[in-house]
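Task card 7
Instruction: Convert sequence to structure tokens.
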Amino acid sequence: MIKIKTKEEIKKMRKAGKLAGELLIYLEPFVKEGVSTQYLNDLAEEFTKEHGAISAPLNYNGFPKSMCTSINNVVCHGIPSEKEILKDGDIINLDVTVILDGYHGDTSKTFLVGNVDEEVVNLVKRTENAMYKGIEAIKPGKYLYEVGKTIEKYINKFGYSIVRDYTGHGIGAKFHEEPAVFHNYTAKNRIRLKEGMIFTVEPMINMGKSHRTITSKEDGWTVTTADNSISAQFEHTVLVTSKGVEILTKVD
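Output:
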């Protein structure tokens, strides 16, 4: 069942989305060489509490931290740690989700740390472009598969691969709702878009030719590329409107 949000729910989702976007902006100056991912986690938790919200990832299905920190070949669900120190040339995705007044705002961004190789910088830029192209394909009456189809058409020309094991998702009072949002074309997303639907678009793009991933047996969370290639991700929470789409987590 895909939940169509009411006007009141949409108001709450706008507020939650805005706060999540502001959290990423707040964290950006601290993403630099020599900083631990645990420090970034603590800053995120403090900011969230100060704004009357809750960090959704903390204790979600047993996840131990307040956000995900995914470095270089980590695709998603990286766990912050005092031992994990950012180095010159790294890229890191910060994935944050807040719960404000019972509703979720979910967004992520891949940051560059110091002097990053040009080919990796290109991967990051193109991943962000892919997300926005996917979002632009959202219109009421169209099918959800247009998101993945558009992203795939753009990404394929660079020889990258699109992760298929993890998708975007519906979101609202629950962290994860229907539908699953694939970032490649699939008939599974033959779902007619309707005004009031809210979901995330969050492509994970690997520099290597393999879309396959491996989940750590050690912590049960950290997902890496199967071929050890670099991976980037961007994410926004979006609302289907009567005319097109509204990005709820984008802050000017």
